[in-house]
Structures are given as C-alpha cells and as structure tokens.
Design goal:
Elements lengths: L14 H30 L17 E4 L11 E9 L5 E8 L2 E6 L3 E3 L11
Antiparallel strand pairs: 1-2, 1-5, 2-3, 3-4
Length: 123
C-alpha cells in the first residue's frame, strides 16, 4: 500500500540479500502484470458479438487505450469527447481527449473503465 505496517517487525537485511529480494519483487510485479493483462482486462472488454446487445460507448466515458507497444502501467487513460456511429447505428469509433490532445480510436482498442458514482459516501 506504500506505507509501513506497524504490525510487522522491522527487519534489516544484509546488502547481499537486498539485491535478490529486489529481483524477486520485480519478478512478482511482472507476474502480476501478466495476469492482469491476461485475465482481468479481457473481462472488462466483453466480446458479445451476435450474443446480446451491450451499451455503446458514450460521450463522457472514461476509457483506457490499449497500446501493446507501451510498457506496463503506461497505457493512457482519457475521456470520450465524440462518438461516430457506423452504418448499423453502433459506435465503432470515438474521439478521446488525452492531455489536451484529441485522438481518434476504434472501439476494440479501448476499454471502458467503470464509473465512480457521484453520490459515493466518503465517510
């Protein structure tokens, strides 16, 4: 979580062991990211072609742009500013605002992120 846990004993490791622990943490991070991409993200982008109608992407949706050329945790997140319906009436392309620039992307290269409710109780 990025903070010290007071319930755990504080241990000082020798310098020789620190490098192996760092490598181990990098391996665990790589395994987590691989599993995240393989199992979680595909579930966020359902492929229900010809099965049932899904909600089309809409203006104001927050999306993550898929770019396999970027390293982990570097995929860009933007907001849909304009949608372009195809001949069948479904949204296939959208304009996404990223850091004051607008990009046009196809829907299969976007993952709609879950919205945070406005009336969320913070107490």
């Amino acid at each position: 979580m990025g903070r010290l846990d007071g319930s755990l004993p504080q241990v000082v490791y020798p310098q020789s062991e620190m490098i192996s622990r760092w490598r181990h943490s990098q391996i665990l991070t790589d395994l987590f990211w691989s599993a995240f991409i393989k199992y979680y993200l595909p579930n966020q982008q359902t492929r229900s072609k010809w099965q049932r109608d899904e909600r089309d992407i809409a203006v104001g949706d927050v999306v993550m742009l898929i770019d396999l050329q970027l390293p982990r945790a570097m995929w860009l997140i933007g907001k849909v500013t304009k949608v372009m319906p195809s001949a069948d009436g479904h949204i296939r392309t959208a304009e996404v605002l990223l850091k004051e620039r607008t990009y046009t992307r196809q829907f299969p290269r976007m993952i709609v992120l879950p919205a945070i409710p406005d009336n969320m109780d913070t107490s």
